[in-house]
Amino acid sequence: MSVTAKRATEAAQAIRKVEAFFTSYSAAVKETPAVADFTFGNPQEMPLPAVVNALKTHAEPQSVDWFAYKTNESDACEFVANALSKELALSFEADDIALTKGAFGAIKMAFTMLLEPGDECIVPLPGWFCYGPMLAAANAKEVQVPLDPVNFDLDLEAIAGAITPRTRILVVNTPHNPTGRIYSRADLQQLADLLEVKSAEIGRRIWILSDEPYRRIRFFGLGFTTPAAVYPHTLIDYSYGKVLLAPGLRLGYLAISPTLPDGEREELRTLRFAVQMADGWNIPDAPLIYALPDLENVSIDIAALDRRRERMLGALGQWGYKMTRPEGTFYLWGRAPGGDSDAFAARLQKSGVYVMPGSVFDRPTDFRICLTATDEMIENALPAFQEAAESLLD
């Protein structure tokens, strides 16, 4: 008999593809050092000076309790609520904000608050590969629903068909990882209308978890609408790690939609402390909480990301790659030459170029490029992309 809990085994199974890729990738880099690493959203240059300065400033104790236990510190929550109200044009209050260890912590908190054992959560395909293991660990079920195959819009018909009496949460990731799609207010309103009807049909509320860690990384001057603006039963998770390009700084929050009916809003508010404690003291480290106001308006160079995006799209397009033009995030998503992303990634590895195969996203025909690579890396990698296209494309 196994000594481990079933949900732990299921979580391990759900993350197996990612773990296998990471293991093989790490081994490959040791044998063939990276000329260009387009895999994970890690920094390839030194951190932003403003981030370093904020950390240095707030790591210096100013009182005897500087590093004491922290919870949802009132000043920090008030600051986030005011900033979020201006950004999303909704009236958030401090008690709507739970400070968490990045978006991971916020998503975990939402799952803990809303899911009963056996509940179902609908997630987009392709999509972030950590929803599944987190749901398994929560003793809940991931239900993958494909996005529209042409433009990666929300497929309302597919979502409606996936809803059952056990459906509790629908994840909306906007801007979307890995495709870069940003959903319009009209799209989200149609989704909200659908969920109102379906919630009434099944006799229980279906919630939206709006996964927004890339909310401030947008191209073309595009605006942004959060699902919370059109659907009151929405929780928002956010991470500062993306826009700061510092994923190792675990700073984020979970926000309750201020349009939620007062009784339900208050019920969630009162759960904050207990759930965060039960989730392993899911609170950012003290210096990060103090630094939050200094970090709020710091950003990676979006213009540089846009330049890299255009350079890659132009080069890959001329060699026959079928790529999706992202509206946000720092990724490119496209079809692997020959239709086998694992074979394509292995071929690039021989030249020291590393991409993430779509098999990690349950889309084995596609691949993802991370634009946090430097300009030099991109230029050095382009000959390998050209060679792969010429060899693998029919």
Automatic annotation (TrEMBL):
Residue ranges occupied by any Aminotransferase class I/classII large domain in the UniProt entry: 37-383
InterPro entries registered for this protein in UniProt: Aminotransferase_I/II_large, NHTrfase_class1_PyrdxlP-BS, PyrdxlP-dep_Trfase, PyrdxlP-dep_Trfase_major
Residues making up the signal peptide according to the UniProt record: none
Keyword Transferase found: yes
The protein's required cofactors: pyridoxal 5'-phosphate
Keyword set, alphabetical order: Aminotransferase, Transferase
Enzyme Commission identifier(s): 2.6.1.-
MF GO annotations: pyridoxal phosphate binding; transaminase activity
Top-tier EC class: transferase
CDD domains registered for this protein in UniProt: AAT_like (cd00609)
Family membership: Belongs to the class-I pyridoxal-phosphate-dependent aminotransferase family.
Name listed for the protein in its UniProt record: Aminotransferase
